Hints:
Helix content is 66%, strand content 0%. By secondary structure, it is an all-alpha fold. Helix 2 (33-49) runs antiparallel to helix 3 (54-65).
Amino acid sequence: MAHRSDGSEVNRLIVRLVERAQRAGSLRADVGPTDLAFFMMANSRVAEAAPGRWHRHFTLSLDALRAR
Length: 68
């Protein structure tokens, strides 16, 4: 029988990732776990729509998330 996740483990990991990145000064302070989840969903759609060109969108998006 396959393991099914309700997403709570993924949510906890995203929260930890955001907290660690903000403590390290790498992630903007106003970015939250929901923002990061939406970022990942949006970028996956770009990768589907433009398989050969998603790199630019991903790079621009990452730049927008970086703390200055």
